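re the bet — no i am not wrong, look at it urself. input seq straight from the record:
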Amino acid sequence: MRNKITSEDMIAILGKMADDLEAAKEYLTDLDAAVGDGDQGVTMTIGFRAIRQGLEALRGQEVGTILAKSGATFNNKAASTIGAILQTGWMRAGREVKGQTEVSLIDLVRMGDAAVTGIKERGKAELGDKTVLDMLVPTIASLKSSAEAGLPLGQALTASLAAADEGVKSTIPMRSKIGRASWLADRTVGHQDPGATSFYLMWKCVVSYVTAD
């Protein structure tokens, strides 16, 4: 099992994200229709199709560059709130591993912390506002606990996916406080946040790829 994620792994992971997020198009659209304008599935599909088309040109690049350029590609093609959040998170994460062609569990923790900070600044949101942060924060906390315990990468990622699942499900009883969903106020209670769900599906791709061996 891998103990690091290489640049080539990152290319493969992004390709898998493109496939899996497009496959989830209708699911994400239905989630978003309940709390927003119903375009989440379309946005993710358009953005990740653009990422897929640019992957070959990124081969041989460092991990941070692959992330930053892919995030920019997504938001340039599918400009949106989720696109801006994704681009900011990936750009901040990429900065933490500048010059590296492989990343470890400790690197992932630093990348995650940086992404969370950037997303909070960009989206003006906090934990509990029914956003991607409610999935990301517990996921990174789990990775950090695993790193401190000296667990191998695969085991740490598996544990983090369980935390991510709990995080995304925690959004169901929440009331949206940020963005268009906040306009619906109490009508958002009882519905899973589509942005957090999209980020969960992305993270699931990372975990399933790395732990496949």
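see?? DSSP finds nine helices and two strands in the chain. told u. also The chain has a mean pLDDT of 93. so pay up
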